[in-house]
Amino acid sequence: MKLRKLISLSVAALMVAGMAIPAAADEAAAGGDVNGDGKIVVGYISKNTTDPFHGPINSTATEILDGLVADGTIDEWTGILDGLTDAGKQVDLAADCIAQGVDYAIILPAEAVASDPAVVNMTEAGIKVVVVNSKTDSTDDLALTYCGSDDVYAGELMATYIQEQLPDGGAYIHCQGVIGNSAQIQRGEGILNILGEDDKFEALGDYPCDWAADKAVNAATDAMSMYGDDLKAIICDNDDMSSAAQQACNEAGRSDIVCIGVDGNQGPLTMVKEGTLGATVLQDGVGQVTAGIDAIVADINGETVEKEYTIPFVLVTSENVDQYLNADSAAEAETEAVTE
Amino acid sequence: MAKNDKKVLGMDQDSFRMFMGKYGIGIVLIGMVIIISIMRPRFIQPTNLLNIFTQISINGLIAYGMCLAITTGGIDLSVGSQLALVSCILGQLVGVKNMNMVLSIIIALAVATAFGFLNGVLIAKFDMFPFVVTLSTQLIIRSIAQIISNGQAVSMTSSVFKSIYSGNFLGIPRPIVYLAIVVIIMYIVMHWTRFGRYVYAVGGNVNAAIASGVSVFWTKTLCYTISGLLAGLAGLIFTSKTGAAQANIGVGYETDAVAACVLGGTSFAGGISTAPGVLLGSIIIGCIYNGMNFLRIDSYYQSMTKGIIIICAVLLDMVMNKKNR
Amino acid sequence: MAENYILECSGISKAFGGTQALKDVQLHIRPGEVHALLGENGAGKSTLMKIIIGLYKQDEGTITWNGKPYQARGPVDAINQGISMIHQELNPEPHLTIAETIFLKRESTVGTFFLNKKEQNRRAEEVLKKFDFPFGPKTMMKDLTLAQVQMIEIIKAVSCDAKLIIMDEPTSSLDSEETEHLFRTIRDLRSKGVAIIYISHRMEEIFEICDRVSVFRDGTYVSSRDMDGVTRDELISMMVGREVKNIFPKVDCPIGKPVFRVEGLTGKGFRDISFEVHAGEILGLSGLVGSGRSETVRAIFGLDPLESGKIYLDGQEIKIKNPRDAIKRGICMVNEDRKGYGLCLQRSIRENISLPNLPEKQAGLLLNQRREKKECQEAAQMLTVKCASIEHTGLSLSGGNQQKVVLAKWIMATPKVLILDEPTRGVDVGAKSDIHTLMCQFAAKGMAVIMISSELPEIMGMSDRILIYHEGRLNGSVDRSEIRGGSVTQKEILEKEFGGK
Predict the structure, then answer these.
(1) Which of A126, B201, C255, C306 is most buried per CB count within 10 Å?
(2) Residue B193: its chain C contacts at CB < 8 A?
(3) Which CATH superfamily is domain A151-282 in?
(4) Residue C365 at interface with chain B, using a CB cutoff of 8 Å
């Protein structure tokens, strides 16, 4: 009997402890109450809460949405709903948002196709959906707006950089993200768009590395011992992998190998600053989610919202790294600069 | 506590254990529902309850297969990849080749069932550790799924196919109907058939089962085969749910299935489980996910909460079965 | 007696639940003597030894060791105080070296944590040399024969500075040459002042190696004698001691046609066993533990493989590969290991009873649960299982009632041949006589019953015929009429069990 009590108590205690105390705002803004229940509620379905790229995005969103609750623009938001990088889970979370009477939902899709039912179901339930970071299939038709960047372009940026660095061409390997993921597919497409057309470059192979730095290191060391001096470049689908691969090359005395990836996480940026990594492609995730929330605020205020906001990828080298290193540190440190 | 009282008290304890073994977890569930509902009245609304049941359908199906495996003293870690395999087969047959949908589904389920059978044979015939066997087949099956799909996601555009998940039957979402059918069948299989008894006997005391003329080979093999079939069904529902066939789905799904079994009173020592218990366990898992989102619990705390609830449930189970040792 | 004893146990009693395993027993050991401990199965020898090495704690009584009160907290503590035991079942760690085995739990170390292997091997080498052991300290245990493993155990005991070594059936798995080597070692130890308690069923060995003997019977101490001047007959009389009282409710019933016959059965632990059982007959298999009785019936039931031999049921030869085949033919067996092979304790009594009988309770695809419940209830009542409800788990039952549930399982199957291996072991007196009554009823129904028991009075009281095992072979048979007529006594049976003719 005692044990049972203990269990229910601990369950209750945990739930209360973990609960973000919702700040109630009295007056609801006129325009944003989509479902007419007298409250404006914003849902936020993340892709995940674990990888370094999504960390700053989630904390920025938390910052801004908490601010909007505090100043009364919206009444509540759901907190970060963790998609666990699982499209099926995101469909469930969409159902939770519907059940919770959400008016606007922000979603960072895990998959282009498989996460689409989340967008469809929410729009069918009358929720205005803002898709951030990557598109789902029906985003163009259904979403209020899409705020993201063009992954094909990111791939092309990387490829162009490689072309510039290696005017004589050479052989390269490609470290892939989780196979089937849209970012993986599109970035790979971008790389091929450029290097596939260039006779001077030879693709030695695709290594499935699941976005993971350690697997990229293995791929790099394998390729170095297999191809030796023929290996000139390692192109990675994200820069966790490229920075780790570059580090492995440097340690093996092969700092001549050019590694590049996408995202602009703090670690790689620091390496660019130090000069141990040539360049990285910055994806402005914080900018994407900020634009998404801005769009919601604009819609609440009755202003027009564009169907799409493209936040550009930027090639970060030692010349411009300072500005991004600082900006990102700012986001990390959660200063008030962003909410303003 | 004089020695003479022991028998009377023993009976009392036994009855109490039986009661708690049967209903203890239900009390936990009711407690949870009450707490969440008081804090968030929307939680208890019919739409949300239907929502929860729809969401647990996939985990529920997997959990019933897992329950059989655990009851025989094993485990089936391959279920997550089975989801992906079925999804990819459906993607190729329905999405790419435009094959007859019913036939494709039968083929996909047959393949999943065959892999379940393979698990069973390796475990029962060669007496290999279930953990090792299913860990290995997990990798193999996932790889086959990637080969079949070539790493590409296939969009399942057919509205008929999508309605497998999103359709209604008499106003009830179809996944709930599937789950209900499986629960009823599994209840009958586990508690009203010879096979069910053999499962409990093999899990409870394999030597006694052998000495009672039970075929351990067929009992175990059938358990893993059923687990494969149920995981295949779950994969079918998953594919319809997301409208996409791809190889990277279902990663880690065995964890929630094991959790549902354990919450439902399935003992890892083998020989103890009930069909209603597994359903209750799945519902609790569903309520934890849904309820924590309703309560706005920070996602960082969610896994911890889930873990603590499972440990508490196992503790409860051990206290109930203390006399085993 | 003002003699000089190294170990004195007096007034030791120990009960397990309701069973009195030891009652006011004593054992006095002199330094440097080889002391035999003799008694039937279950006489309490092992229990007393386990008390001495601290595995059990006595309920009453005192032990004095080297003149001081002694109580071991466990085998390791006993070793530290100078008492080592070499068990009958040796469990060497196959992947340890000889040195590691000898110094297990008292390794040579550098500082507190780090092993000093060199030093350890050197010390091992020293002791091994003392015993002329043919292998070096780095040899793996798995490369040794059983006799060598045993020798290592002895070396280990000596290296721990043991003043008393208990050897439980040390020769049971040794051949004659190895036995001879062991005896040399024992004599050597004796000359160095080490006392040895020697437990064995082999009379010749006891006469060869031992100085004194203590005899136990039914958990009581009978007497101690010097080996000089005692005869084999006297010892056996001391072990048996009592008369066979007819406490067994054996009801004679007409014995019918032969039902079951085996010819030349050979397998692990038994050779060339042939016998025949008739309908309505209770056949008793008697012999010492490990003499091949249980091994034979396990093989008949399909639990262990047969090397050769034929099994006939109703005159036709049958093949039994596993228990399922046996059950299908109507051969059922109650195993001596109730927890291991009898019940799924965490399942209900009903499920346990009906487990082998489910095919009959099938109604279409499902089980006819109402019928099952009714029949199990009846079976439980017939066997007088004391339980509140048949839905309770096996755990809620006492040992005797668990055994009745096992019987109920098989009675419901209405077997032609019922094998009962130690059906009353660990069962209280009341349940015991219930089980005996049931056995007679089964026989009266025309079943052929094969019973194994380590209790001579039980086997003599219940059997129509007794076959006596000695070291894996049959060593004679006794008819009920001979027992009734008094022409065969317990003593004679026991003599045959010990290999006499």
Answers:
(1) B201
(2) 365-367
(3) Response regulator (3.40.50.2300)
(4) yes
